[in-house]
Amino acid sequence: MNLQQPFALIENTAAPDPSSLWSSDLKKAPLPTNSGWQNFVLKEGSCPEYIHPYLIQFQGGAMSICYPTRAVQPAFIFQAFVPNLTIRSEVHGIGTGGHVVTHYDDLTVSLQLSGYMTVPLARGSPYVTCLFNDWCTPTLSTIHAVMDIKSNEDHTKHKITLNNGQTWVLYSTSPLPLSSNLGFSGRFKGVVRIALLRGGNEGEAILDRYRSAYPVEGIADLSVPFQVKYQWKTKGSGELLMLSHALHREIISYPSERNFFHALSYNGIDGKLVAVTESCWILNEVPISVGWHSSRGVLNRQARQKIASALRQDVASLQPITTASTYFFGKAVARAARMALIAEEICLFEVIGSIRDFLVESLTPWMEGTFRGNGLFYDSKWGGIISRDGARDPGADFGLGVYNDHHYHLGYFCYAGAVLAKLDPGWGHAYRDHLFTIVGDYMTPHHYHDRHDHHRHWHLHFPVHHRISTQSHALFPRFRNFDLWVLHSWAGGLTEFADGRNQESTSEAVNAYYSAFLLGLAFGDVFLITAGLTLASLEIRAARTLWHVPSSCTLYEPEFVAQNRVVGVLWANKRDTGLWFASAKWRECCLGIQLLPILPITEVLFQDLEFVQELVQWAWPALSRDGVKDGWKGFVYALQALYAPEEALHNVLSLAEHDDGNSLSNLLWWIFSRWPLSSSS
How far apart are CA 167 and CA 459, in angstroms? Predict the structure, then answer.
């Protein structure tokens, strides 16, 4: 039986219409809204994107390539765009024009420029490839002074040295004579590849050897739990040369180390990018074991009594949720759902009925479209679940209508829905389509534009009742928020940003995929169970590698590491210590936003106890600042509980209030579920 999309349609006036920067074949929903190349299809499409290892800009029918330098301050790290080289195609009678996206997939995006020039961009390629599909005159320019040009005898390789210290190498499939002012003589048809020369003579030899094979498509296969398999489709001859980033190298099992060329490496915002040959990679993540409840349980009888006492009060204090915000409503209803699972874990079954009734009364109006203050609807323009308020105002619901923070908001609804379906299977059956549509917004494994056999395999591999897009076409883009190249999520949607996509809260991203896993448990859905945990584990690895900044961190410069223990907002091309809602000085918020909501999977996210202690000590002085709210203090104390639970308990009991997604019972559950067995307190 096919899943039916149950939410009413709505006209989304907050989001822009898909522009003419999409080719006519692609310009239909669902479309990606959080991709690593999103700037290319927003507004004029002229804002650069970071396509490792280069910043790429398309403007006026030309492509500019930049190998960026890093600017580092204690408050931020960013890479500045400078058009080191600009290439275009000139054809008599054809204007400069612009560009259109003609193909996209997990690992590549292709753009057609005026004058018969196509650019298949592969993320992680040391070369930028230009296909001149018919006879034309390529033109090359730079803002720098050209210091030297060395060409081989047949004019198929040119080394261009600029006055900024960079040397670029340009390869062509047929002779393409280049003058000292970067002018090409004659017309050309074929392939041009451009790369920054790195690693001296040895690096140059590597680039020479692998110059021929270029990627035109790339997929990331997630059909095996806790594994990502990259497969690139190539043209040209020989083996494919790509670059691996730090997260890749932590978990890559194929190809082997002998395929890596450490002599050829590039600097990247995510750390060193090291050359590797092979058109197929296998990344094996370490499996994580997590469920509805804590891994150890609450073993002390007195501890269970303390939790039970707080839980009875928290349940008795539940009031109808009055906020109309999808984010804050989601947090509040998920907070109540946490209480039900805590009650199960400590066997306080007497309160579960009241919590179940509260969840039914809270969630059902959102499912049925009768919630007075707001509502969930389907946007057929881009293909997604948005709110009524978000459809009218791009700033409402933190930009839900322009596809900002979808996995955060819908992840909370998914968590609450999964818990309620567990407690009340009848309710779950009645609103199954609603829940699977909500989770499908950010967990759909295929999309309408896929033409790979691999994506059809998803349809066969997983249960029928999750085939969200087995109707006439997919409802949602493939894994809306999760970027299968950088191996973490992006939250920023259809807004043009100078530094690309961004994400603030890694823990809320983990919550989204953990909640998908729980929904899979509630309904016995193999796909949600396996894919949810796989993405959660990858998000955790990325958080620990990129967002967490231990004092021993070598990924970032010493002046940044000395002042920070977490990244506030991580951008595709920037690291910022401030938050969207708070100054970098508000360290309790910087800590808390990478911790909330506190869940059983949180203990996996914060396994490194040495780092946890450093993080708490870093944030601790901020707690004495005037105006610090107890809700944020609670998150600092929660991490303190990982190494000093008795002190943390004392501090938690002194709090007068808690975050709107947290509760005293949840904090006590967290502390006592890691309480030392030898303690008699």
Answer: 48
Output helix, strand, coil percentages for the chain, rounded to the nearest 5.
35, 25, 40
- CA 357 remoteness from chain centre: 35
Q: Are strands 167-172 and 188-196 parallel, antiparallel or unpaired?
A: antiparallel
Q: Is 553 exposed, middle or buried (0-12, 13-18, 19+ CB in 10 A)?
A: middle
* pLDDT score, position 469: 40
**Residue of higher predicted confidence among 472 and 149:** 149
**Cis preceding-peptide flag for 18 (omega within 30 of 0):** no
The span from the CA of 219 to the CA of 202, in Å, is 30
Concatenated DSSP letters of 653-672: HT-S---TT--HHHHHHHHH
Whether the CB-CB separation of 116 and 91 falls below 8 Å is answered with yes
Instruction: Enter the tokens of residue 655.
Output: 């709090």
**Whether residue 630 lies in the annotated active site:** no
Rounded CA-CA distance 18/618 in Å is 45
From CA 332, how far away is CA 327, in angstroms rounded? Answer: 9
pLDDT digits (tens, 9 = 90+) for 108-129: 999 999 889 999 999 999 999 9
Under 8 Å CB-to-CB from 476, ≥6 apart: which residues? Answer: 30, 383, 384, 440, 441, 442, 444, 447, 468, 469
pLDDT tens digit string along 534-569? 999 999 999 999 999 999 999 999 999 999 999 999
pLDDT tens-digit series, residues 338-389: 999 999 999 999 999 999 999 999 999 999 999 999 999 999 999 999 999 9
Q: Which of 397, 405, 441, 483 is catalytic?
A: 405
DSSP-assigned states of every residue in 460-512: HHS-GGG-TT-SSS-SS-TTSSEETTTTEE----S---TT--EE--HHHHHHH
Q: Which of 504, 525, 539, 659 is catalytic?
A: 504
Residue 182 tokens read as 């970067």
Q: Indicate if the pLDDT at residue 680 is higher than 60.
A: no
How far apart CA 598 and CA 411 sit, in angstroms, is 14
Among 508, 525, 576, 659, which one carries the catalytic annotation? 508
In the three-class reduction of DSSP (H, G, I as helix; E, B as strand; rest coil), residue 550 is classed as coil
Give tens-digit pLDDT for 631-655: 999 999 999 999 999 999 999 999 9
Report the sign of the C-alpha dihedral through residues 312, 317, 319, 323, in that order: negative
204 Cβ neighbours under 8 A, 6+ residues apart: 169, 197
217 is catalytic: no
Per-residue pLDDT tens for 153-191? Answer: 999 999 999 999 999 999 999 999 999 999 998 899 999
* Distance separating alpha carbons of residues 593 and 181, to the nearest angstrom: 52
- Check if 508 is active-site: yes
Residue 215, preceding bond cis, omega within 30 degrees?
Answer: no
DSSP character for 156? S
105: tokens are 């997939």
